[in-house]
Amino acid sequence: MKGLVLAGGTGSRLRPITYSMAKQLVPIANKPIIEYGLEDLVEAGITDVGIVISPETGNAIREAVDRCADRIGFHPSFILQDVPRGLAHALMTALPFIDGDDCLMYLGDNLVKGGVADVVRDFQHDRPNCQIMLSPVDNPSAFGVADLAPDGSIRQLVEKPAVPPSNLALVGVYLFDATIAEAVHAIQPSRRGEYEITDAIQYQIEKGRDVRASIVSGWWKDTGTREDLLAAQHLVINEMSHEIEGELIDTEVRGSLHLGKGSQVIDSRIVGPVVIGDNVQILRSTIGPETSIGDESQVSDAIIESSIVMDRSGVHGWKIRSSLVGRGTRLHGAAPAAFVSIMLGEQSEILGE
User: Fold this and answer.
1) Which of 142, 249, 264, 349 is 20 to 30 Å apart from 181, CA to CA?
2) Helix (H, G, I), strand (E, B) or coil at 265
3) What's the pTM value of the predicted model, to 2 decimals?
4) What is the number of H-type helices and E-type strands within the chain?
């Protein structure tokens, strides 16, 4: 079985963060989102992985994947999708790489608790033509949705329906055998002008092929918005272990803390779970809970709660909560008295007055 990770798209819902970085590279607990999916594939025994990239962010994705490939243990191949015309179009573009093999397609901005090893084993044992993963959601109109018969079989799949037939959304993990090639070539663009993966799977159903569904037993997150990213970090960071590689000086720690190499936390308070990267300096501050501070950042006289602060950032004298702070961003000067919630792109600067 080959893996296919979709890492294109513009990430418009995460602007201004995604003006300067791919959405799949936004860090969750100081690790790019895409790495979680790549680790899931390797854990399931899939090491031949195609990465579908776009012209806009492809180089950055390529560099990030190349950096982690040996460490995680997979061989990447990069596939350019020249225009974003839907998930089925991305799969169609990757068919020469798949070359008739079984394929697991994984959306590069999704997180699935427990990985995909179990569903891969089920697929390889039972040999359906297609297997999808479903999860109950509160807003099914924002997703592809499955309509199940009383016996659990799939009657219909609908992409982002105005009136959803159920609350079971398609998780960003799909398993296919070679018959999917016929399906993606048979469908037509939807009203949105895209080749929908739900239409390709619906084609399989109507052809009488074996299409099965598994309900996700843990959590699943599509990290397309700030709220989704922070919710994903909440889920991930609460499962991380306590590990101190840096230095704590006159600092109180409650809960779990992952403190990176070369980092110092001085005269501060940590309310875990918190992840602090390498070569970080924190002075007279309160960090956490559910907060990550990226490598080489500097924080002083600040309070940071439930936030993602990316590499090389500086937060001085501010109180921030539920925020995304892009790489190399600086918050300093006279800050508001109350907490603020912000989303700042790379290399931004706010000087309070």
Assistant:
1) 142
2) strand
3) 0.88
4) 8, 32
Query: Buried (b) or exposed (e) across 108-131, using 16+ Cβ within 10 A?
Result: bbbbbeebbeebbeebeeeebbbb
**Cβ-based burial of 171 (10 A; exposed 0-12, middle 13-18, buried ≥19):** buried
Domains, the chain, in order of start with CATH, read 2-236 (3.90.550.10), 240-352 (2.160.10.10)
- Compute the C-alpha angle 96/102/103, nearest 5°: 70
- 77 has which bridge partners? 50
Supply the pLDDT for residue 353.
65
Quick count: other Cβ atoms within 10 Å of Cβ 216? 18
Which residues lie closer than 8 Å to 70 by C-beta, 6 or more apart?
Answer: none
Q: What is the pLDDT of residues 168-221, one digit of tens each?
A: 888 889 999 999 999 999 999 888 888 999 899 999 999 999 998 888 877 777
Rounded Cα gap, residues 207 and 156, in angstroms: 13
Half-sphere exposure at residue 26, Cβ-oriented, CA atoms within 13 angstroms: 37
Angle CA 305–329–235, to nearest 5: 35
* pLDDT tops 70 at residue 12: no
Q: How far is Cα 69 from Cα 262, in angstroms, rounded to an integer? A: 25
pLDDT confidence band for 343 (50 / 70 / 90): confident
Q: Do 109 and 82 form a contact (C-beta atoms < 8 A)?
A: no
**Per the omega criterion (within 30 degrees of 0), is the bond before 96 cis?**
no
Distance CA 219, CA 198 (A): 22
What are 212's strand-pairing partners? Answer: 131
Let me know: does 164 contact 145? Beta carbons within 8 Å: yes
Per the DSSP assignment, residues forming a β-bridge with 291 are: 274
DSSP secondary structure string, 269-309? EEESSEEE-TT-EEES-EE-SSEEE-TT-EEES-EEES-EE
